[in-house]
Amino acid sequence: MSGLENEEVKTTQTGAPLALPPPPSDEEAEKITINGNQTFKFDKLGPVVVNSDGTLSRIANWENMAPIEKERTLRILVARNQVRLANQEKQQGASGDQDKLSISQNA
Fold this sequence. Notes:
two-stranded antiparallel ribbon; 2 helices; disordered N terminus
């Protein structure tokens, strides 16, 4: 049973439902530490995945994963995202000077 089923639906002033739940406070955010020195905070949606074509997605079953699965997935995902961002920078580098792509590691 999802936590969203029990929450009342919030709407905007025009009466349209909000697309996403509000971001969690610092106390509610899930924190995962990998390699003993990198700490990441996530909302219920989990980490962002950089696809090989440069598009972004999320891991569909993040909420259902066990903590050890999340840690292992995150360790692989961080490394893979860095490689894919570097590849995207190389492709964009030929088109001119633009801001570099990066993954924020703020905890």
